[in-house]
Amino acid sequence: MRTVVLVPVRPGHRSAAGNGGGLAPVIHSPQDRLAESAGLARAIQLDVVAEEIVPLPQPRPATLFGSGKVGELATLIGESDVTLAIVDHALSPVQQRNLEKAWSCKVLDRTGLILEIFGQRAATREGRLQVELAHLTYQKSRLVRTWTHLERQRGGFGFLGGPGEAQIETDRRLIDERIAAIRKELVVVVKTRGLHRAGRSRVPLPIVAIVGYTNAGKSTLFNRLTGAAVSAKDQVFETLDPTMRELRLSGGRRAILSDTAGFISDLPHALVAAFRATLEEVVGADLILHVRDISHPETEAQRHDVEAVLGELGIETEAAGGPVLEVWNKADRLSAPERADAERAIVRHGHRAVLVSAHTGEGVEALLAAIDRRLGAHDEILSVQIPVGHGRLLSWLHAHAEVLAEETEESGAIIARIRIAPANRGKLAGQLKRAGLG
Q1: If I label 198, which of 61, 92, 248, 390 is the partner at 20 to 30 A Cα–Cα?
Q2: Can you state the percent helix, strand and coil of the chain, rounding each to 5?
């Protein structure tokens, strides 16, 4: 579908990241917004034939743009044989309808475009239901009486019933019924997820969730850390449904690593709510890896966007003491001076970030060590005496703790100095009791 992407920009009103969590706004340049919007369009295989930043001195209630600009864009759309216009702005139903009439093509605003992407990408049952719920809620807001195809009358009968039920009322009622049905289905699906989560809690492995701005390299890092084969194409919203794999760290520590959907600037609140289930693993995570494309010119603005969404979920940032570790990805794209600046910044901030390249593997060992340290902040250091003939106990220690040192006594007994997680401390007591050593 031949598409034009339009980014309205008010003079002196550049797009800023939300300030959820008390963050100061960070500016996104119009050029970055245009590149992101075009990337969103290409993510669903739209043929972007024109991209334009459109000055917007004063938004108009009827068409958003002034009449002169609407006519100018109509010429561009007609000459380019465009069938879809994407406006990177929230459009009211009236504005959308009037622009479609003026331009003789389909018009989508930012929310509509993101919903289209979500609709194509959601793979799990819950993901598809959440997408449909968000889509129907959005569609319901588009039911306005200026849309002539919704003004047809149907079903008039008798003398007291009037002309019958208007099509718009029928459409609204059908949407309401479907929304109610989806919510009932989601109760069952979410309950099932809760049972799965409870099952995992019986094998108390810590959860490590990967978050970040879309296209920051989260899925590539996920694959690098776990050896999985999650799709990691260079396009936005490639991952929508949470993917989970086991992560093995040094000393036998195991964790569950979860990949999640990427965030973008100005993500509509309705969509954050609709995909809260996708982010449940983030809310309950023991550690959150915030993956940043450190080579991107807008990396600071993207950081604020992600932290704003995390703030909406009640998660504190790393600077505020939250369970967040920043991963500065795509180090292979940095020039020598940029790399030196990044390394100095990490030292300056007390090594609260790790510089990596998920593509080449650089820095991954350091990242795994940092994850291990963060998850092991409450570990205990113990000395365990293992008599001769209790090799199974020693094997258990190697599998469930980090054996720091082993010393063999004259009797043949082994003194093992170990670091063990609180979750395994009780299990160790059980192992010792079964071995007659408790």
Answers
A1: 248
A2: 45, 20, 35
The mean of the pLDDT values for the chain is 80
Say if residue 154 is in the same domain as residue 106.
Answer: no
Spatial CA neighbour of 190 closest among 277, 122, 281, 284:
277
- Over its C-alpha atoms, the chain yields an Rg (Å, rounded) of 27
Domain, as residue range, for 427:
380-434
Look at residue 197 and tell me if it is in a domain.
no
Q: What CATH number should be reported for the domain holding residue 418?
A: 3.30.70.240
CATH number, residue 351 = 3.40.50.300
Average pLDDT over residues 254-273: 74
Alpha-carbon torsion (407, 413, 417, 420), positive or negative: positive
Whether residue 20 is predicted with pLDDT greater than 70 in this model: the reply is: no
The candidate with the shortest Cα–Cα distance to 382, out of 364, 367, 397, 366, is 397
Q: What's the structural domain count of the chain?
A: 4
The predicted model gives 66-88 an average pLDDT of 94
Residue 218 and residue 310 in one domain: yes
Alpha helix ranges (H) inside 203-322: 218-226, 269-274, 280-283, 299-312
Token pair recorded at residue 311: 């703030």
Contact (CB, 8 A) for 88 and 37: yes
Q: What is the model's pTM?
A: 0.70
Tokens 């199974």 sit on residue: 392
- Measured CA to CA, the distance from residue 44 to residue 103 in angstroms comes to 22
| Two tokens, residue 285 | 């995570």
Give residue 251's pLDDT.
60
Hey, what are 13's tokens? 């009103």
Give the DSSP H or E segment for 175: helix 167-202
Concatenated DSSP letters of 300-357: HHHHHHHHHHHHHTT---TTTT-SEEEEEE-GGGS-HHHHHHHHHHHHHTTT-EEE--
pLDDT digits (tens, 9 = 90+) for 387-419: 888 888 888 888 888 788 899 888 888 998 988
The per-residue pLDDT for 172 is 83
Give the chain's end-to-end CA distance (angstroms, integer): 71
The β-bridge relationship of strands 254-259 and 243-248 is antiparallel
CA distance linking residue 170 with residue 140, whole number of Å: 12
